[in-house]
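haha ok so turns out i had the wrong file open the whole time. this is the CORRECT one, sorry everyone. sequence first:
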Amino acid sequence: MPDTPPIVPARPKNAVVILLDSLNRHMLGAYGGSEFITPNLDAFAARSLRFQKHYAGSLPCMPARHDILCGALDFLWRPWGSIEIWEDAITVHMRQAGITSMLVSDHPHLFEFGGENYHTDFTAWEYERCHESDPWKTRPDPSWLGAPLFGRVHMNYDDSRGYFRGEEDFPGPRTMAKAAEWLDQNAGYHDRFFLFVDEFDPHEPFDTPEPYASMYDDTWEGPHLIWPPYHAAAQQKGVLTARQGQQVRASYGGKLTMIDHWFGKLIDAIGRNNLWDDTAVILCTDHGHYLGEKDIWGKPGVPVYEPLGHIPLFVSWPGQQARDIRALTTSLDIFATLVDMFGLTSIEHRTHGESLIPLIENEATSVRDYVLAGVWGREVHMIDGRVKYARAPAAANAPISVWSNRWSTMPAGVNHLRMPRPDDRARLDHMPGSTVPVIRQPFVEGDMLPYWAYSRFDGNHLYDLHNDPTEDENLVGQRAEREAADKLREALKQVEAPDDQFQRLGME
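then structure:
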């Protein structure tokens, strides 16, 4: 008798991607954390493929979303911005293929200058208002005294906070509840769908109601410290005391536990709508958040150490048993996986991701040899699964250019932190893989730069992540650095990085 051909499992019909912002991998029980309670995330991880070497690519918030929704690195070309005219978000191709896409989010950067067009090609979208910088209200609610006193410059959140009456009024819980409601109303109606839940928690402000507010620090007196400083050596330099640092960290933990609770309600909706058998469910983040590791707080101008760049990824895939996957992966690969899963074939712009399906279906043990990561204007990182190499500018942080036809950066609320307009030094160039002209604006030492490029550098960094996971021993100056520098140079050539990046990094 002829051999029976192997049964090829059907690809999932649908995808649900849940992005939690600033989700610290090392604080999750599934990755060995025990400081905070995350029962629903841990239960989801127990049924999922758990990626052990997953890294951020472009940082911070909007660049990371560009990685996921467009599949292309942008930190080598620009600091922060919308979808450019030479590229399309994955939702454009889904629409062409007849796939329904839905965005549910409370992420304010998606709806402000510099991020305002990522939502437009979803079939539909819901925006739950009033997280962090969202300009939702022009005055506090005079009938409610629930807003805490923050003791700092007035922010939009101060006006919004008093309108929350209970836990269910906070933006994170509302976002998760709205996503669960969408599943209840739409699962089984659409032939194929993509639900993207872009949830801003546990990002600051680390503001929660009781019992979460005091859950991990019940002896603190006074208003909770919900706004972490963005500072390196913060305790050493007296920016905050050890006791204040404990309170900031505990406040993050309270928010993590709160959003874990509401994440559980979304997972319940997936179960009651019988989606586990035909839907890929992906839990990811954009980056971590420093909470005192190496006395670093927030996301200041330092190399991308493990707490920030080594991020969680859980994938529940129909027909696949829970297990660990130790291959090197990055956020760009989520885009490539969705393209592969949905059979999208019309991607025109150059992308940098690799589909994870060969790993998921046990057909491969690796899909890439390295990850490039970084923040525009900062160090450029190469991670190969064994070492991390952070290459700093060789001298001044110049030359460097911004490549963009949508001239924007992170709205910082302070005029001098906005990106200057192009001037007569600008010229037209082309992005790799595109013939669309793009404005290339060069900067030199002394020019005003976007916010993220402002900080000092302390040279190159090289760490053996296998033997030194806490990155305590810098191996620069040794033979290993020459080998890492060669790998980084080749990786930059592979993506056709701008020539001024090679000059800035002293890698010509």
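DSSP finds eleven helices and 19 strands in the chain.
again sry for the mixup
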